[in-house]
Amino acid sequence: MLNDIKRLLLVAAIIMASAIGSVAQDNEAIIDDGYLPNQADTIEVLSPKMGRMIKNTVVLPSQYFDEESADVIYPVIYLLNGHGGNYGSWGIIRPDLDYLASEIGAIFVCPDGQNSWYWDAADGNSQFETYVATELVGYIDDNYRTIRDPRMRAVCGYSMGGHGSLWLGMRHPDVFGICCSMSGGVDITPFPDSWNIKDILGEYSSNPDTWKQHTVMHLVESGIKNEGQKLLIDCGTEDFFLQVNRNLHKAMLDKKIPHDYIERPGAHNAEYWSNSLDYQLLFIQKAFNELEDTAE
User: Fold this and answer.
1) 3-state DSSP of 30-49
2) What pLDDT digit, counting tens, does each position of 16-35 carry?
3) Which residues of 165-202 are buried (b: 16+ CB within 10 A; e: fewer)?
4) Are 80 and 114 in contact (CB under 8 A)?
């Protein structure tokens, strides 16, 4: 009976993700403040740098609550939303996050990215690089039973969040040892009028160097080398970000930066990201397991 219920829930999740995909085709706005999977909480975390509270979803594995496992500590996977989304977006894309957390034995944390592109803006109003990489990670480590090792801490996301995962990971290798991007906006310079970017960086025509310096592509071209970091890039063949991801892949090959690269049929939508998460979690879990095997 229990297995039948699980199968029904998984079928419902797939149907929901597909439905969202059809509505959100080429659209990153996936917002639902009311949805939370089981074993999940909405928490508000203070950002001292921004002087305000930020909402986040935290999904715990079922074994976290077992009395006989009260001393067990867990790896953490940070899931970043795209432009127009929020802390509840991943719960819409994958309503089975609680099941996945239990299967992997990891904690999921979904911060509210607030169209920030996960940069620290010059005007001081949007400081989401500091928030996610320093303030939020610190809060989660202080309030949950986590493994405080970058090799057991992953960050991944879609679209704006795909850019964010590589941006944060490459700039903070001491925090995130595993970084995964799906449909990532890894080079924003071909899109000067899109996604409110000019509200943060100014007009591209007036600030081309600033725009370039805020791209993952620039980090790679500047010669950044994060030894031992696990990197995965994933993009659909019908995605408008496909070419910039191909360009990044080539640049990383030229710079001899180890990484995995995936292209599959698919567009810039929730259906693709739901499927992509399965691949990324396999990549992340393998990295976790390799470290555990080394420690034994």
Assistant:
1) CCCCCCCCCCEEEEEEEECC
2) 433 333 333 344 545 444 44
3) bbbbbbbbbebbbbbbbbbbbbbbeeeeeebebbebbe
4) no
pLDDT of residue 71: 94
Contact 98, 38 (CB under 8 A): yes
Count other C-beta atoms under 10 Å from residue 38's C-beta: 15
Which residues does 263 contact at the CB level (< 8 Å), separation at least 6?
Answer: 234, 235, 236, 237, 242
Binned at pLDDT 50, 70 and 90, residue 38 comes out as low
Residue whose entry in the numeric block shows the structure tokens 């990484």: 259
- Structure pTM? 0.87
Comparing C-alpha atoms, which of 78, 22, 41 is closest to residue 280? 78
Q: How far apart are CA 26 and CA 4, in angstroms?
A: 34
The dihedral sign for the CA sequence 78, 81, 87, 89: negative
pLDDT exceeds 50 at position 115: yes
Averaged pLDDT for residues 211-230 = 92
Reduced 3-state DSSP string for the chain? CHHHHHHHHHHHHHHHHHHHHHHCCCCCCCCCCCCCCCCEEEEEEEECCCCEEEEEEEECCHHHHCHHHCCCCECEEEEECCCCCCCCHHHHHCCCHHHHHHHHCCEEEEECCCCCCCCECCCCCCEHHHHHHHHHHHHHHHHCCECCCHHHEEEEEECHHHHHHHHHHHHCCCCCCEEEEECCCCCCCCCCCCCCHHHHHCCCCCCHHHHHHCCHHHHHHCCCCCCCCEEEEEEECCCCCHHHHHHHHHHHHHCCCCCEEEEECCCCCHHHHHHHHHHHHHHHHHHHHHHHHHHC
